[in-house]
Amino acid sequence: MSTESSLDSGIQEPGKDAQLRADALDYHRSPTRGKIEVVATKPLSNQRDLSLAYSPGVAYACEEIAADPAMAAEYTSRGNLVAVISNGTAVLGLGNIGPLASKPVMEGKGCLFKKFAGVDVFDLELAENDPDKLIDAIAMLEPTVGGINLEDIKAPECFYIEKKLSERMKIPVFHDDQHGTAIISSAALLNALKVVGKDIGSVKLAASGAGAAAIACLDMMVSMGVKRENIFVTDSKGVIWRGREASMEANKARFAQETEARTLADIVRDADVFLGCSTAGVLTGEMVKTMADRPVILALANPEPEIRPEVAKAARPDCIVATGRSDYPNQVNNVLCFPYIFRGALDCGATRITEEMKLACVSAIAELTQAEANDAVAAAYAGQDLRFGPDYIIPKPFDPRLMAAIAPSVAAAAEASGVAARPITDMDAYRERLAAMIYHTSFFMRPVFAKARAKPRRVAYAEGFDARVLRAVQTVVDEGLAQPVLIGRGPDIEQAIRDAGLRMRRDADYTLVECGDDTTACGTRLLASGKVDALICGMQGSYDSHLAHVQRDIGLAPGAQVMAAMNALVLDKGTLFITDTYVNDQPSAEELAAIARMASEELRQFGLEPKAALLSHSIFGSSSRPSAQRVREAREILAREAPGLDVIGEVHGDAALDENIRAIYLPDGQPNFEGSANLLVMPSLDSANILFNVLKVSSGKGVTVGPILLGAAKSVHILSPSATVRRIVNMTALAVADVKDA
Ligand SMILES: NC(=O)C1=CN([C@@H]2O[C@H](COP(=O)(O)OP(=O)(O)OC[C@H]3O[C@@H](n4cnc5c(N)ncnc54)[C@H](OP(=O)(O)O)[C@@H]3O)[C@@H](O)[C@H]2O)C=CC1
Ligand SMILES: CC(=O)C(=O)O
Ligand SMILES: [Mg+2]
């Protein structure tokens, strides 16, 4: 079967999947090719840096490691570096598509390691099918990395390869498809059985697949209490029964049953649990109908499960279904495990992954699902019912608590099982460090999206004919973020939708408002009259021309002194908000204070606690020039009028971001906060706009959001002609989140 036909085999909504395919290819191709890059973490800009980083300075680091190998964790990045290795023999459910074609998956695993747990990855796709040669090649990497994550290597070779490598290497070796899947599916099973009130010791389990994932899942489920005699397994040849001769290697033989059953339909009858780690569509609705009461179906094949949830539910409304996919409830996928088990293992210098560490992972994941959703999670998934139950037997992949829940448990279990070379001495401090790490990176837009999804509003797009706007609106429709209203000439918009190959339909998915010329004026009138709740404009023409309409038709919010613009940049070290990037030339002290207050309020939309810095060429009174005095005065106003706000000033840019630099200048009694500022209030329009654009380009890949218009009476944002589709989607979500109920 070709890759394409295997992918197509389960497609149920051709239009949607064709769009997803186009979007996925575009995601992989642009703006840069692939999904990862290597970034230097140290400055290397002058002769001195060169002599530290390279010869002669580097030799000192080499000597230290030669004298004590443990020093490699101090002087190199090895301690945070994992090799994701595949030979491409069992890539997702696509089969043996080879190492080169497996690379997008391995790069993807690298992204997840980095984004979810801050772990660096080299993805290594090796053209080698001989297990012993593969073992030799991988074992040679021990000086390079702190851990080995084997991926998509087919059974039965994978069992031998992992065993031999674990014996040979003094770093954690983990076959993700085996143990990651086993951990997460065991946690899901424990929780699902709790929901349906069944005893693990008496359930009948029918499995489809007897490869890497299935065998490891079954082994772990046996260790959790499922009785071996209650487990029935099929592979591509049918039921694994005692006496069968074909394809009966040891790992399968362990699960062979004395039985007359020969097909999946035979073993599924009366089963309480179905475990699928095989291939698309093998479980039918008819089979599900024959299962026991309240059956639990873990259909984990990727990208297309053994059965789609809607088919299973139609057959048996009382079932609990989980798949490996992110577009259904109950995503049972090893992404919930591998980033965090390695985080814990690397942080304590584990020399291998023990059974205790795996079981600690299972408990942490199972318990986290049952814990009350805290504010951060509720905000991240607003509108979704996150109460433990049939549609929530496993945490969501974007649950920001995962790392702090799993990694410390893994590290503690590593220490208890005697494999932690560098045990964690202060667990509370470790948990806090992990939590801080996670809130800096991937979770930036989630609270905003969740809020938008919970209450999608009518958002008008002044440039309803622009191809980028239309692509963004398609995503907005698909993700249920807003009810779009497109402004422009109807025939032009409809032609542009056809040209872009989009699926959205007039009146069903979007409303059209006919407008010939000044579409922003039309938009602001719609907004002022309450016919829409929010407006996005600015894709064409100057910022000021759009602002003039907003100022005339919408005006200031009650209590606001000025309008101002803010841009956000999500950088590796955290998110920075910069203001005022577009509106006020030289804000007065009162205006600066007002801008700082409005901007701080807006940061809370992102679930962030604002830490504002009023920036200047002066630091804590070092200059008496008028511009420094103006900024100092703004801080005094804030101290009087908003005493609860964390604000420092006036400060240099470096001191705003680095508390050590700040400490050098800090006079006694000067208000201060810990760590880095996340809101930079700039003294002038030029400085704000220049700083933002320079950072945006020099950081290369930072996500940017904005310009966010502050101070208007209604929710309106004026974008710039360089806005990307992604920015428009983000700004739509923010515009919806910003709508205030009358
Ligand atoms: N959700 C998740 O987190 C994960 C999901 N998976 C998914 O699990 C599946 C298997 O992966 P993996 O174990 O690594 O791959 P393997 O190649 O090691 O195993 C595949 C297994 O599926 C069996 N199989 C193939 N076709 C059928 C069929 N028609 N009926 C019954 N069994 C069949 C094979 O049988 P035979 O032994 O006879 O060849 C083999 O036992 C993939 O779809 C993968 O995407 C994997 C890891 C994680
Ligand atoms: C999720 C995963 O690792 C797989 O499907 O192979
Ligand atoms: Mg895999």
Automatic annotation (TrEMBL):
Entry's Gene Ontology molecular function annotations: malate dehydrogenase (decarboxylating) (NADP+) activity
Domain of life: Bacteria
Residues covered by the Malic enzyme N-terminal domain: 33-166
Pfam families: malic, Malic_M, PTA_PTB
InterPro entries linked to this entry: Aminoacid_DH-like_N_sf (IPR046346), Malate_Decarboxylase (IPR051674), Malic_N_dom (IPR012301), Malic_N_dom_sf (IPR037062), Malic_NAD-bd (IPR012302), Malic_NAD-bd_bact_type (IPR045213), ME_PTA (IPR012188), NAD(P)-bd_dom_sf (IPR036291)
Domain Malic enzyme NAD-binding: 178-415
UniProt keywords, alphabetically: Multifunctional enzyme, Oxidoreductase
EC number(s) stated in the UniProt entry for this protein: 1.1.1.40
Family of the protein in this entry: In the C-terminal section; belongs to the phosphate acetyltransferase and butyryltransferase family.
Name of the protein in question: NADP-dependent malic enzyme
